[in-house]
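Suppose you are handed a protein chain with no further information: no name, no annotation, nothing but its sequence. What can you learn? This example shows the usual starting point.
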Amino acid sequence: MHPVKRIEIISDSVELGKIVEALEKIGVTSYSIIHNVSSKGIKGTVFDDSAVTMLDNVYVIAFCSPDKAKPVVEEIRPILNKFGGSCWISEVMEIRSVRCIASM
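A reasonable first move is to predict its three-dimensional structure. Written in structure tokens, the prediction is:
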């Protein structure tokens, strides 16, 4: 096991391209994206009641080495400040498995 940073971002789908571009610019190339996210926060509740996918919320989860967390914040913060959204970064432990289950 080794320490990594877990990055979670919720934003409008419209900003997804900018967020992904920022992550990849820093070298965070492994991430998952979940579309049509409903949530509730200090600004109220956001439901997935739109037929237009450009107005949906997305959830991006990525993991990176601890040294990349600060550059991620510097790139993501202006996007979220301008267009809205939330970002959380936490410390987690990664377990790397190099053993193929099929060979067991």
